User: Fold these one by one.
Assistant:
Number 1:
Amino acid sequence: PFPGILTVGGFTNQYGPVADVWFFDFSDNAWHPVLLDFKVPAVAGTTPVVFNNTFTFFGGNYQTLDGTATFSNETFSITNFRSVVVANNGTNAPSARALHSAVSNSTHMIVFGGFFCVCSVNFNAVNKHIFSDTWAWSHADQSWTEITTNGAASLPRFQHTAALLNNVDMVIVGGSGDQGTDLPVMVLNLETSTWTVLSTAPFTHSLQVDRAAAISLSSSAFAYLTNAQVGGQLFTFRSSSTGITVTEVQSATQIPVDYFGAVGNGSELLVFFGRSATAGNFVNTLYSLTLGCNAG
């Protein structure tokens, strides 16, 4: 398991997107600043992945001096908590965007969806575009390839979550699109590049939210935690020989934030930072939620 939590950028109450990097060490339960040999951009709305001790992230948005939001399509990699490289400066890359999803298997980082606009930093858009394309970043070649998919139509969305099951099935849950949050759960088989719609009754409506988190529990299961503004419900998605099943987990703990990050180790979820659902400001609290046997 990864030895802690590495955070890059994000929004703050005072300054908008920031460029600092911090590491929460599980061995001493403390945050430590990470001193890099190259300054990463001050971005928010990006989704990093970890592969072979390399932390890779694509895109995101940052605030310019006149208060507008500018979107990136660069790819950065942080190796061994020190060395930073611009792995790709936007050449033959996905269009600039933020609030997309990303997962990693043994060979690629897979990016889906996202949001772009000519707008202020709070996304009051003059014009906007919501993406439904899928791209693969090769860990070995450090290059991008767009994936041509088939099957069910992948509806455009952003502020959604993604998780990988059995290193093959990328599950997309929640988010916002042209029709609001009325979006089905979809599964992309990375071997066949085929999209299917996953039946999630009777939880379909509860899963149709944005600003949630998907947290890996094992190679064949992940937890889905909704934000506090819609009840902070917890579900598990589990893959078996008969398909993918969804189960609601009854929790006595209410995580009172949205726009949060989260990680898991199979029996415990750690939720960090986020925006207070009551006060509306960003907080730096770390929450722990232990999963019981009813989590599957």
Number 2:
Amino acid sequence: MMDTECDGIVFRKRSKASKLMALRDTSKTSRVAILPPISITKIGCKCRINSETRRCQLRATDIIDHLKLTRKPHAICTVAVTMVDLYPKESWNFVFGLASLTYGVGVFSFARYTDTFYRTPPNKDTTDNYTCAEVTAKLLWRACKVMTHEIGHMFGIKHCVYHNCAMNGSNHLAESDRRAPSLCPICLRKLQEALKFDLADRYGTLLKFCEGSLTDSQTPLSEFAEYGEWLKKAVSFLESKQYKTQVGRRPR
């Protein structure tokens, strides 16, 4: 690896973030807001060129440090999103995302979730190469899963080793793709204990997102179809008399 001049990059294209942030409407327990773009130059984030991909990378720990200093006091968590590849320290090749369990901040990159990352030669003359990737259904699906994972860390949940779970760790794209979109029963219970949300209501709103009720008509959601079918079954069971009877019999 070697350092290079690749600063001057700005996290922009608010409209693209808006497609991902449509998922914010599935949160019934907190309000989600899109903050202004961050200039990498202004925060002094270190950059390098990856010797394998020849693409610019941002040091994720520098972004984390900036978020720690600027996070709003009332915010439960703050997450930064970028189309530039990330690395956590010199000895690492890359990282999909990074979060602080203590400070409630994190950053993740869409870069390696695009279909063109490994096929298209990097363009060092413009930052458009890093900020203007097409938002495909696959990219949005992957992005939602990694965002769920990183925000889980911000709520203090560590990597899950019990079931196929959104909080499973991953070291490469294929492993990340195999990761479930939802939390397993153990991690779900941890989050539910912290936020006190109604599970049937939560799954019902996620289902609306998957079906396109909470997004504009241009948002690509074909990759969400299978998860939507699972949510339908989950909501049906949670609203059934059988489930409500079982819950009523549980000791308080």
Number 3:
Amino acid sequence: PRSPSLSVTTLVALLLATAAQAAPEVDGPRRMQRRLLLIDSFSVVFQQYHAIKHPMSTRAGLPTNGLFGYCRLLISALEHIRPTHAACVLEGGGGSVERQKVLPTYKANRAAPEDSLSQQFSHMIPLAEGLGIRSVSKRGYEADDVIATLATLAADTKTFDSITILSSDKDLMQLVSSSARVRVCKPNIKALRDVQAAAFGEAEVMDAFGVRPSQVADYLALVGDSSDNIPGVPSIGPKRAAKLLAEYPTLHDILHAAEHAKPKAFALSESLRAKIVEHRGIALRNMDLVT
């Protein structure tokens, strides 16, 4: 994810909200655990809207199933994660423009939200504020860019004892770190009830993708991301990408080896080496899109 310019002062300002329902535990007479929760709000609302099939609305006719699910999930997150600081991160508008310059068809597979869903968007911020959580965004950047920036700043400044990201976005798996105590949890009630077991740490990312969190961007550059309409390198699927990254640590290492390896010295096969050389531009373009 791309990083908007946010200072440490801005980080602190963005994370002022502390939910009353999330009163921190005290681990000692003077030591309070500081837990940061970052919520990918539109990811949550979209998921909840489609998960709750039966119609729900106010007396005035405003559809509320997405908002109901959003509220229910936020309350569950506050109860089970118990953050001392939290932020709901929204799309800032115009966030896809720069990536669409790189790939004009970026996210072109996504249909406009249904009217019954879009009517609920304007109520997301006051709903979250009612729970004590501030909503943040930055124009020109996608929500995952802002989440990545906040999480990285928080980890680099060692401001928090743990950082939990609530999202279904695969891109954010590259932020997972045991040393920085960053984890990603899918936004569903079942996962939140046992967040310690359900959240993605380094081992869970390795189990799911076959690569380390630090290699997730390299992995996505090879296989692409259908949810964002990013095509991968031809002939490279998840298993081949994981095998390549087990042999060569980064995408650039793979490309260098493919271009300079002696005959039959490249991992997996000569035909695959030729494919990588031929489609080098796709891999590099994708790397720009997923980071």
Number 4:
Amino acid sequence: MSVLNNLCVKMNTIQCHISGEMKQGGEIDTLAEMYQFCKESPDPINRRATYLHNKGSFHPSQSNDNWRRAMTDAALSQRCSQPPNSTCNVCGLQFAAPPGMFTNLFPGNMFTARCDYVNRLLHPKEYVKRQTDVVRKSFQLRDQGRFYFKEKDHKAWVTGLRRYAPEHFIGSHPYIVPCDLSKEPDYWYWQSDTPHTSIEFEWAMFPRQKKFNLSAAVDPKLHAFLLNKSNIDKRIRAYTYLAGLIFRHIELYNLTPPLHSWMFDWLPDGPFWRVVLQRYGKSVVNVVTSSIFNRTADAIAEIAESH
């Protein structure tokens, strides 16, 4: 506890709320504390909560130490606690989203979030239960030919099950408006034996790049395969792209991303999904992934251009 107290004294840009100690637990327990803190906030729009943890402690290494320090510095920085653009509701070292990542998240799971956004989320423990149900349903839809799962997409770290659920939690809501401090798109840049410091930080709303760089993807070959024009049917149905994202948003929160969301500007076939979402509302995934929907390249392009 003294370590935390000393840290809080040094950081004058944040307010610490130390609620207790646990002999045994996990990130869902600490996320629940942050969640409760925001729920009790009298001014959630102007209150931000910072979430930190001892990332990499089970696998000590210089690269994990460097990554953890960079994530901590970013989440505690004034640029995250008081971002230049107040519409940013979650900030951290590096935000990641499809197509490079399998979902919306901050790799390493450290961030500063506006409490009114946190209050929109499910309770972390309820999220774990609901996410399990959502994944089970997605497997059924995959078996029916609706969702396309790339190789390894059924793995727990992709679907957000068990110990991977906490990392998926903060980015699970369709109203997330992220910003970050890493101008380097490569997810492994900060996880190196060479330390990178806050001198390299540069704040920006996500996405800071106009076009996705395949070299920064978790699996560049698979994403290159999906982004090929001849594979558009699989891409439209891909669980880790907009079909799966919107499906999870509806199943978890009964909401869809706003039509002005950054997701439709960044993710593959975003203009198409913006149009069909406007047409079909919450039925959009059922309609688009059905066997009778025309998912040829020409048909998708025509719909996208009709906006």
